[in-house]
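Annex B.
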Amino acid sequence: MARSVTAAALPLTLLLGFLLGLATQRGAPLAARPTPPIAQEPDQTLPEPGLESSEEAIYQSLSRQYEQFYQVNRTFELVSKVVSRAVVHIVALKRDRTEEGRTRRTYEESGSGVIVRSDRRPGQFVLTNNHVISGSELSDIQINLHDGRMLRPSAIFRDEDSDVAVLELPVDNLPSARLGNSDEAVPGTWVLAVGSPFGLTHSVSQGIISARGRQERDLYDNGVQNQDFLQTDAAINPGNSGGPLVNLRGEVIGINTAIASHGGGNEGVGYSIPINLARWAMEQLLASGKVRRGAIGISLQDIFPEDFERLGLDRPRGTLISAVAQDSPAQKGGIRKGDVIIRFNGIPVNNTWHLINMVSTTPIGQEVELVVRRAGQDVPIRVTVADFDELTSSLPQPGTPATSPDGYLVRP
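PDZ domain-containing protein: predicted structure tokens.
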């Protein structure tokens, strides 16, 4: 009986063992199971050469790549569209006159400008460079609008010292550009230059702010005393003068005025008047017909590398006082010949031009604090800013930076 029981139970035992093994395999941890190979997706960037519809696949890939830059491209497009409507092409008939006032010859020059509004006076105005319309009368100036219309200004306001001119328009229903804050335009900022290079109206070029606080002796010799230019590599060429330099918010941050070039065209170095300086001149011109500049009654001299140690400085900076006017704010405040002004109202003074701009744009009658380096010590001095014309007529002209190479600077 026992054999019979053992023999009969054998199939049942085998069946139970099989089921137990199957259950054990199914319950094994995942780490113990073999890992299936990962399916590799084909590279969709560029198809293999020779495949059918390869061009279509490339264009599809480019379309996907372009979507990543669409917003940047759209920003440039919108800035160009909104600003171009406010940019004008200026043609000025100029008269070369003799000392007796007779016209020797006439010729045309062209430039650019931008339509703006003022805080001081109602209406619309074209902000441009003085050298674009210098020597021209009202009837000599033609303003060509974006829509093809032509206007003539109803009034002209000029300031040679800043190379700013303002043309009053006879209409008040045109697109106006927004003015930004040029103090925020740091090197590396993306910018667009809009204007009429070589007469090609409403052209747009793109670049960055390359540097700040540039000056040029050639422009000083031509009467431009307020120099604090923005430098840009956006293409600026003859005909761009007076046109706007704008940021990617569509705000005007500069008025293009000159290019550094040996060949007369763009070589990657252009200069723009910061809009804060241009607007300061414009508002005064519109308020009183002239620009009143501040002064404290001193003559200045640049500090060169061979001088700074002798003057007790750690590097060439500030500006050296070469003369002090009698009964001037500077003399009354205690400034002496030989002092080096290193700070103005808390701002470090970089060079002569930097101080000239800060003093001249300070409201007349305002008290300011200067710090001068004297015998190795920093001495604070307080002075009251007076009118430039009243104080500087008997003083020598301020010192100027080193002369640039002949034919280097071009007025576009």
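Residues 64-291 form a domain with the Thrombin, subunit H fold (CATH 2.40.10.120). The first strand starts at residue 87 and ends at 97. Further annotation is deferred to the next reporting cycle.
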